[in-house]
Amino acid sequence: MKKISTPIIFGILCLILSFAITVQLKVTNTSESTSSKAKIVDKLKDEIIILNDENKKLTSKLQNTTNNLEKIRDEAAENDSSSIEKSKLIKKYITVIGYTDVYGEGVSIEYIPTQDQYEADIATDLRDIVNELKNAGIEAISINGQRLINTSSIEMVKNKIEINSVKITSPYVIDVIGNSEMINNGLIRPGGTIENIRSTGVKINIKVKDNIKINKFSEYTIK
């Protein structure tokens, strides 16, 4: 049996050593890459936490400022009839833009669609009801807890109904604050929106309530 020459053995050892070094470098690079990504993710998480905290602080500050402003206006208007009217008007505008929770009399409307009803048709009905209510001079309105303000819309997103980018599902409950008698009479009038919708098989229950709470617009809510 012939002996393997020293150069060949040395060459084989060099080849094995080179392969081992290459594998080690790849493992090291992969480890460093994974570690780098983990550091970036941790940094982003920290930034998100900081931003959420800042948002909560700003939201709280906005709410406190709004409450203080209302208090000052009420105090200033106590002995001035013209200021009282201005204060009421300002409160109305604050309510419309959704800065505060609203309490008062109103109606609660439950909309129960038919089993084979398309989501798009439901969205259309909800829009028609909301428009009918707005014409009645309501103070505040929400659907399934989502406060509707001037910039809100009832949208179809991937065949689902969304309000304020939040998906809502059946049953749909519309809470409204305002003159309950006026709102109810407007809703049940012959030939009105509610009667037309009911004629398609949709069930709509209307309840007059002495006290309804509608939460502030979700953007102003501290989570």
Note poorly predicted spans: none
Shape by Cα distribution = elongated
Average pLDDT, to the nearest integer? 77
Q: How are the strands of the biggest sheet laid out side by side?
A: 3-2-7-1-8
Which series of helices and strands comes N to C? HHEHEEEEEEHHE
| Total of DSSP H or I helical runs spanning 4+ residues | 5
Distance between the termini: 83 Å
Structural class: alpha+beta
| Assigned CATH architecture of the largest domain | 2-Layer Sandwich
Question: Using DSSP, what is the number of strands?
Answer: 8
Provide the CATH topology of the largest domain.
Alpha-Beta Plaits
Strand content: 15-25%
Number of domains: 2
The radius of gyration computed from the alpha-carbon positions, rounded to a whole number of angstroms, is 32 Å
The CATH homology group name of the largest domain: Protein of unknown function DUF881
- Helix % is 40-55%
Q: CATH first level of the largest domain: which class?
A: Alpha Beta
Q: How would you characterize the largest beta sheet?
A: 5 strands, antiparallel
